[in-house]
Amino acid sequence: MKKLNVGLIGAGFMGKAHVVAYSNLPKFFWPAPAVPVLKTVCDIEESIASDAKDRFGFEKYTTDWKEIVNDPDIDIVSVCTPNDSHAEISIAALRAGKHVLCEKPISNSSADAKEMAEAAEEAKENGIIAMVAYQYRRVPALVQAKKFIDEGSIGEILNVRATYLQSWSADPSSPLSWRFQKKHAGAGALGDIATHVIDISQYLAGDISEVVSSVKTYIKERPVQEGGVDSLGTIKLDENAKKEKVDVDDEASFLVNFASGAVGSIEATRNAWGRNNFLTVEVHGTKGSILFNYERLNELEVCFSDDPDDRRGFKTIYTGPAHFYGEVTWNIPGMNIGYGELKTIESYEFIKAIVSGEQPSTSFAEAYKVDKVSDAVMKSSESRSWEKVE
Ligand code: SOE
Questions:
Q1: Residue 116 in contact with residue 132, Cβ under 8 Å?
Q2: What superkingdom does the record give (predicted)?
């Protein structure tokens, strides 16, 4: 069985998700296209790096990502650092001949994203795979939705309504992390979570060609947690703590026009009390509708126009063995998959692509396109008018 050595850069929340995925891959997908081996983990905080080595079962740790990128034994680099270092690390890794799985958004600026897409294109010529971790498009229910769309079961797409609502930053006393600083994150809810639903909308309905938006920051400063890690709202600080400026958006809402002629809307915020990982997509077509909500990720709601009048309505399909990846996850519908299995499906697609040499989505070029939509959203919020996606 072929083995591929993994170097993980950034051992926080997303680093853990990549480890769960690589470790579970051969447990679900067997025979695996190749077996990932956890070789080296890197974090700039030595205590986190050394802890991650023991906890996740890596062979060694480092605090210098270049050691991973320059290590001839490493085949794969997982980039799970804050957005502002994605470009430098990914480009160096691709040029060193490593396959790269980079967390989303691809970068904190579309200029960097462009360079990354170019580096991925060059690397592709040498059989190197680069992928951005927009995992939600791989939820089996959404892959089923795409199947319905592609086979014409809901007709021509008229409208895509998507939201991504969370609550973890709604409390003003939850600390400032890199996610609230433009120089690190690039954008707030727009870059962090709207990008997921931009990716899904484009996956289902094709390219977005223009947008008109409204982007807001409600909480303009937050307390600073000295030496703190990104706590995603789980830590609250005293109101007397030193505060620093938030210079990214809390909320982005926009109307979109697709190149196909379909229309739609996207809303994202991390300040919606009561909403946790409320990623929804509703697609209306000339012959039916589809509704998905990540908080019920094992379900897809569908309505077909040719059902008789007296029984037409949304019905729930529970994804399981009859659906994508269902035969390898759990074999009874209703046993359900979660975030860990979803990241495992993503890592399977990545490793499979490395072995087959076929580029998987979301490619760096597609992720760069997502960034261009985000840029148009920011531009429109300033110009207060429709803006084309460049
Ligand atoms: C925080 O909003 C976050 O961790 C995002 O960064 C992820 O992309 C999303 O999947 C879950 O929430």
A1: no
A2: Bacteria
Query: How many angstroms is it from 137 CA to the middle of ligand 1?
Result: 14
Structural domain count, the chain:
2
State whether 14 and 103 are in the same domain: yes
Q: Which atom of ligand 1 is nearest to the CA of 270?
A: 2
Residue 353 lies in a domain: no
Q: 239 pLDDT exceeds 80?
A: no
351 in a structural domain: no
CATH number at residue 33: 3.40.50.720
pTM exceeds 0.90, yes or no: yes
Of the residues 79, 192, 271, 279, which should be mutated to test ligand 1's pocket, given the most ligand atoms within 8 Å of the CB?
192
Distance between Cα 193 and ligand 1 center (Å): 6
CA 201–ligand 1 middle distance (angstroms): 17
Say how many Å lie between the CA of residue 327 and the centre of ligand 1.
27
Query: 291: domain CATH number?
Result: 3.30.360.10
Q: Where residue 270 falls among pLDDT bands split at 50, 70, 90?
A: very high
Residues with Cβ within 8 Å of 249's Cβ and at least 6 positions away in sequence, in order, are 187, 188, 189, 190, 215, 216, 217
**Residue 161 belongs to what domain range?**
139-333
Closest ligand 1 atom number to CA of residue 168 = 2
For ligand 1, whether the C-beta of 270 sits within 6 Å is yes
Query: DSSP assignment of 249-281, as one string?
Result: -SEEEEEEEETTS-EEEEEEES--TT-SSEEEE
Domain boundary residue, one of 132, 154, 181: 132
Nearest CA residue ID for atom 9, ligand 1: 193
Q: pLDDT for 279-331, tens place per residue?
A: 999 999 999 999 999 999 999 999 999 999 999 999 999 999 999 999 898 98
Rg (CA), the chain: 21
Is residue 227 predicted with pLDDT exceeding 80? no
